[in-house]
Write a structure and sequence with these properties.
This protein has about 450 residues and is of the alpha/beta class. It has 15 helices and 18 strands. A hairpin with a 6-residue loop joins strand 14 and strand 15. Helix 14 crosses helix 15. The radius of gyration is 24 Å and the shape is globular. It binds aspartic acid. The site of aspartic acid (ASP) has 12 residues, from loops.
Length: about 450
């Protein structure tokens, strides 16, 4: 069987939902379908999930949130009406959304999650109704009933191992099973969501649990591209890519597929097909365990902003046993995840995401490093971006670092950091955020256009 996941843009309008139903109906193996919430109908539009978050925030800040919730109800009603669904089949959606807005607000995170999940929960209902109206046998399963058990981390939940055994029984259901993405329940029965874009993760978990032969991820582009089309004109399509390559590129900004979604698929060895709902005949991109990296060593170039580097130096650092552990323990204590730690003989930089490092946190961490570790020098550099050059063929190819640094030099981009060697499939460079476009274009030219 195949698991097919449809993203928000594939469900934003009745026209899109019709295409989804058509795709499902064309292949009898597409028996497990995961849906996101309706996304943007056009540039500048708001996603249903963002409306729901706005409703939750409004209520938490003392306003009613009614206006936002009514807008979300209207979005569902419009899609349902355009699909020709009976009014009675849409009423439960409006009732559900209003009940959620009145839920207990004692725990902010759980309250927001209850609302956030409503987009997927009700979209699954709507799609099920439409599939039935189109003559298919279809039913909708709530993640509680299906057995998707998550950690107690509101807005940032992770799957618990016990889920896999429970979800396996979905195999036995007749017809098409529609499963809402993005949320599940804790052991104690509380609703929690994955990070944003988490319906990809639900689909991946389901594919692994039922041992699907293929996980199809339907989105709004024909395939994964070798570079961000917003930065490089007409970048080339990627036909095949490994989990490792995709993981590194998604980490650095390839948003076609959620990076956390690869983990269950990687362990179960299930290939992923990235496909376009608007153009299902296009070949798409296949994400696989291994591929023959013939000819070209590089598969993609990605860049992502929002990092800062905390530089620490102390004379004879290399002789001080436990220095690194004590330094990182400060980050652990402060609940700041670290991303990378490039090091020298007497110095070490800790690279973190700026979202976890506001000015108050910075002040606390720097003070602790100075006093607890008696560092000679501590400084912070903000506004950094990471650029990744990724490809399975890289470890067998001589001279790639020289080509990459040559490309940076030609475009006049200064390198703040180079991190090479830890990963067999990538090179990572730290640059200033303002240099991202020049850097990516120049690397793309070097590795793909042959004009370097
Ligand atoms: N609807 C959720 C979001 O906008 C999850 C998803 O679409 O995957 O983040």
């Amino acid at each position: 069987m195949k698991v097919a996941k449809f993203g928000g843009s594939s469900l934003a309008t009745a026209t899109q939902v019709r295409k989804v139903a058509d795709i499902i109906g064309r292949d009898a193996q597409r028996r497990l379908v995961v849906v996101s919430a309706p996304g943007r109908r056009a540039p500048g539009d708001i996603k249903v999930t963002d409306l729901l978050i706005a409703a939750a925030r409004a209520r938490l800040s003392g306003a009613s949130g009614r206006a936002e919730i009514e807008r979300a109800i209207e979005r569902f009603a419009a899609i349902g009406a355009d699909l020709g669904l009976a009014r009675e089949s849409l009423d439960p959606i409006a009732v559900d959304l209003r009940i959620r807005l009145d839920a207990d607000t004692a725990d902010d995170g759980l309250f927001v999650d209850t609302l956030k999940a409503a987009g997927e929960a009700n979209c699954a209902r709507l799609v099920t109704e439409y599939l039935r109206a189109s003559g298919l046998v279809a039913h909708c399963v709530d993640p509680l009933e299906g057995g998707l058990i998550l950690s107690e981390e509101a807005g940032n939940a992770r799957v618990l191992q016990a889920s896999y055994g429970r979800l396996r029984t979905l195999r036995k259901r007749p017809g098409v099973t529609v499963f809402p993405g993005f949320f599940g329940y804790t052991e104690s029965g509380r609703l929690v969501t994955f990070p944003r874009g988490g319906s990809d993760i639900t689909g991946a978990i389901l594919a692994a649990a039922v041992g699907a032969e293929l996980y199809e991820n339907f989105t709004d582009v024909d395939c994964v591209f070798a570079a961000n089309p917003a930065l490089v004109e007409n970048p080339r399509a990627v036909a095949e890519i490994t989990y490792r390559e995709m993981r590194e590129l998604s980490y650095a900004g390839f948003s076609v597929f959620h990076d956390e979604a690869l983990e269950p698929l990687f362990h179960a060895g299930i290939p992923v097909a990235v496909k376009n709902t608007g153009n299902p005949a296009a070949a798409g991109t296949l994400i696989v365990a291994d591929r023959e990296a013939v000819g070209e060593p590089v598969v993609g170039i990605a860049a992502t902003s929002g990092f800062c580097s905390v530089y620490v130096s102390k004379y004879l650092m290399n002789r001080e046993i436990g220095f690194g552990r004590r330094l990182l323990a400060i980050y652990e204590d402060e609940a700041i995840p670290f991303e990378h730690t490039p090091s020298g003989i007497d110095n070490l930089s800790v690279i973190v995401r700026e979202e976890f490092f506001n000015h108050a946190t910075e002040e606390r961490v720097l003070r602790r490093i100075r006093t607890e570790l008696a560092a000679d020098e501590v400084s912070v550099e903000r506004g950094l971006a990471l650029v990744m050059v990724v490809g399975e063929g890289m470890r067998h190819t001589v001279g790639l670092a020289a080509r990459a640094t040559g490309a940076f030099a030609r475009s006049g981009v200064n390198l703040e950091m180079i991190n090479q060697g830890s990963s067999e499939v990538s090179m990572m460079f730290g640059i200033k955020e303002g240099d991202v476009t020049a850097a990516v274009r120049s690397l793309y030219d070097e590795f793909f256009s042959g004009s370097g």
